[in-house]
């Protein structure tokens, strides 16, 4: 049983966390390069928010948005 848990430890510490260890060592050289994953996620979230707001505006202009407070049965 001990070998099983040591195998899990080896998998996570030496294989799966290797890219994160690289980013941690890269931070000493360039903060922006080390945070590329964060920048990518922020760009994805910002573009999704812009798309969502545009879709809300399209439905509002078409008049297909149901703003009645009884639109859901639990609000009655």
C-alpha end-to-end distance = 56 Å
Q: Helicity, in percent?
A: over 70%
Oligomeric assembly: single chain
Largest sheet: none
Number of helices: 4
Strand content: under 5%
What structural class results from the helix and strand content? mainly alpha
Average pLDDT confidence is: 88
Number of strands: 0
Taken in chain order, the helices and strands follow as: HHHH
So what's the overall shape? elongated
Low-confidence stretches: none
From the alpha-carbon coordinates, what is the Rg to the nearest angstrom?
A: 23 Å
Can you lay out the helices and strands and say which pair or pack?
Layout: H1 2-16, H2 18-26, H3 31-34, H4 36-62
Structural notes for this entry:
This protein has about 80 residues and is mainly α. Helix content is about 70%, strand content about 0%. It has helices at about 1-15, 20-25, 30-35, 35-60. The mean pLDDT is about 90.
Give a short overview.
The protein is mostly helical. The chain is built from 4 helices and no strands.
Any descriptors?
mainly alpha; single chain; 76 residues
């Amino acid at each position: 049983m001990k070998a099983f848990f040591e195998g899990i430890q080896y998998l996570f510490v030496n294989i799966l966390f290797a890219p994160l260890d690289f980013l941690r060592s890269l931070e000493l050289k360039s903060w922006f390069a080390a945070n590329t994953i964060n920048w990518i996620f922020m760009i994805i979230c910002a573009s999704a928010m812009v798309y969502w707001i545009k879709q809300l505006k399209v439905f509002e202009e078409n008049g297909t948005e149901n703003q009645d407070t009884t639109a859901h049965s639990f609000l009655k």
